[in-house]
Every structure is written in C-alpha cells, then in structure tokens.
Design a protein that fits this description.
By secondary structure, the protein is an alpha/beta fold. It is about 25% helix and about 25% strand. Helix 1 packs parallel to helix 2. The chain is globular, with a radius of gyration of 17 Å. Bound molecules: iron/sulfur cluster (SF4). Iron/sulfur cluster binds next to loops. The site of iron/sulfur cluster has 12 residues, from loops.
C-alpha cells in the first residue's frame, strides 16, 4: 500500500473534539479532494507534497516516544487504504482516531476507535445522504458565525444521537476576536434543541497560535 505522508508530529496535545487535552501523535496524509478557501493546512492539499511511507515506517516513527494515541488526519486520510496501518497500530496498543471531512467513506472507517467527521460548508451531501452515522462516529463542526451555527443545528437535527462538538473557528489572519466566540457560546447556551452538544475553542490555537506541527 502506497501512503503519502505530509508530516508526522508529536506527541502534542489534541486541541479539538471529544479527545481534547490528551497527549497525541498526528499523522497528516497528503492530498485533499476539497479546496476550502479558509483551509489552515493548505500545505497538505496536494499529494505532491508528501513522502511515500509504508505502514511499518509510520509505526516505527510513532514508537520513538511513549504516547499511545494517534490521530490520522490530512488533507483527507480517506483517500488512502489505511486498514492495515490501523491493524498494526492496534496491535501496538494505540488508540486510533481519524479526522475526515466525510466526502468519502472507505470500509476501514469501521475499524477506528474514534471517527471524527468534520463536514465543510457546501460539501455535506455525502453525510446527509446517510440514514445514520456509525457508532464510533462523532461530528466536529468548525463554526465561525451564525451561518455555520445553523448548519451545525441542521446536522444535529439529522443525527441527534451522534456526539457533536461545535469548534469555534479561529480566523486565519489577525488577532483572536472573542466577540464572535461569545456570541456562539450564547447561541448554544440558550438553544434547547442543541442540548447535549458541546462547544469548544481550538485549544492548540489558543496555546500556540497558528503554528504548524503542534
Ligand atoms: S477539507 Fe480540510 S484539508 Fe481539505 S481543503 Fe478543506 S479544510 Fe483543507
């Protein structure tokens, strides 16, 4: 299996979603089937910007320091066949999460411990066509404003039993403006239909800013 890896970094702290705060390795696969204007990992959009690695080489790199959580991300990791990598990681005792935008649904999604679906505005058809999401899935919706909040609300209405995190987006440029954060926190606080949904800032961005490799 040919895997193209843009970067491997860690152990760092998971800054988003249900596993927020845990020490975690990140393996970022090269290539994405979308081109979002506000993408904060544009350097991983092309498969040209990656190194060819085998499952064995990836696992060996994650074994240099003790940290038994790994997040497979991108780009879109769903472009690749990762079943054997996940088997190998499980055999070594890793807890494996995957972060993907939900445009592609390979069979190996069923094998991961935590399937984090982070749909992008305007590209939610593949998710919305599903009757239900698998039991290992969680939704992580990056929301910058009221339009994004309404989209998150629609998704929660469609999949009420799938855990959801609203992840307040951080602008690519400029200082962090907490006004929008507050308004989103207040929207959720007063929204009875969204009871059970969690809202979080991007913890790693608050701590390290928009730096690569953390
Ligand atoms: S789906 Fe994610 S990785 Fe791909 S272009 Fe959009 S924000 Fe970037």
């Amino acid at each position: 299996v040919v895997l193209k890896v843009n970067e491997i970094f860690g152990p760092t702290i998971q800054g988003e979603g249900n596993d927020i705060g845990f020490r975690t390795w990140f393996v970022r696969f090269a290539g994405c089937d979308l081109r979002c204007g506000w993408c904060d990992t544009k350097y991983a959009q092309s498969t040209d910007d990656g190194n060819v690695m085998t499952d064995h080489e990836i696992v060996a790199q994650l074994n240099v320091r003790k940290c038994r959580r790994v997040c497979l991300t991108g780009g879109n990791p769903a472009l690749y066949e990762l079943g054997s990598l996940i088997t190998r990681l499980h055999m070594r005792g890793f807890k494996v999460s995957v972060e993907t935008q939900g445009t592609l649904w390979p069979k190996w999604f069923g094998a991961v411990d935590s399937l984090v679906i982070s749909p992008k505005l305007g590209h939610t058809q593949a998710i919305e066509s599903k009757e239900m999401l698998p039991p290992n899935a969680q939704l992580k919706v990056v929301v910058f404003n009221a339009v994004g909040y309404a989209q998150a609300r629609d998704l929660h209405r469609k999949f009420p039993s799938t855990p959801m995190t609203i992840q307040t987006g951080t602008p690519l440029e400029g200082n962090l403006d907490l006004t929008e954060y507050r308004s989103l926190f207040e929207s959720l606080a007063s929204d009875e239909e969204m009871d059970g949904v969690r809202i979080l800032p991007q913890l790693h961005v608050l701590v390290w800013g928009k730096r690569r490799g953390v």
